[in-house]
Amino acid sequence: MCSSSLQRVVNFIMLRIMTLILLKKVIWNILIILIWITLKTI
Question: What are the transmembrane regions (predicted)?
Answer without folding.
Answer: 12-39
